[in-house]
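Here is an idea for our session: we take a single protein and study its fold together. Start from the sequence, derive the backbone structure tokens from it, and show both lines together. Once you have written the record down, we can walk along the chain together:
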Amino acid sequence: MRVTYLDGRVEEVMCTPRAQVMAEEKFGGIGEAYRLRAGYYMAWAALNRAGREPADFEAFMDAIADVGDIEDEAPVDPTPVAAPTTTSLG
């Protein structure tokens, strides 16, 4: 997951099974009604358990601008595309 804070800081963290279970326990499951909140909670739980987010969940919510999946982004091909070359036969 990629967490973007209001101050411009960006943190990337893997959503661990423990973070998923913590969100399920917090919201009584991850149904459609809690999908957004559960995603934020999973990001907070993963960062918190990794020692990278000391604030509690409510303070975390006040400090973030966005949480998204890293997989949502299309991978960038680092290989430059060469322009096709033409040859004349003559």
